[in-house]
Every structure is written in structure tokens, then in C-alpha cells.
Design a protein that fits this description.
It is built from 2 helices and no strands. It has 77 residues and is mostly helical.
Length: 77
């Protein structure tokens, strides 16, 4: 893989993160300030979100560990 082929995807992910993360932070801030939602609804949304993040992190870590020990990693098609 050439250096240009590595740079552009990383640059794209960095731009995506730079645009999405502030929007997510602002949405969380506004969500917590909203007094019209009952506390149980806020807790349900937060626990669902945290649960999804934990499951995503678990699957990502599992795939990383498996990919490190993949005996077919160097096989070219």
C-alpha cells in the first residue's frame, strides 16, 4: 500500500470525526438540558446508548485480537 493510499482514508476519517464529534457533543448537551423529558426517559436513552457503545467496543476488540493471530493474513488473492 502506498503512502497516498494510506493518507487519504485517514484524512477522510479525521475530517468526518472533526465534523461529527462536535455535533454529537452539542446534541448530548442539549439533551441533558431539556427539562421536558422525564428522568426515566433520559436514563433509558443513556443506558441504551452506553450499552451499544460497550457492545461495539467488545466486538471491535474481539476482531482486533482475531486479526492479529490470523494465519491467513499474508495470503494474497
Amino acid at each position: 500500500m502506498t503512502s497516498g493510499a494510506r493518507f487519504w482514508p485517514l484524512f477522510g476519517w479525521a475530517l468526518l470525526a472533526a465534523g461529527v464529534l462536535p455535533l454529537i457533543a452539542y446534541a448530548i448537551y442539549q439533551f441533558m438540558l431539556d427539562e421536558t423529558l422525564p428522568l426515566w426517559v433520559k436514563l433509558a436513552i443513556v443506558s441504551t446508548s452506553v450499552g451499544l457503545l460497550v457492545l461495539f467496543a467488545y466486538v471491535a476488540r474481539q476482531r482486533y485480537v482475531i486479526a492479529k493471530n490470523d494465519k491467513y493474513k499474508k495470503v494474497q488473492l
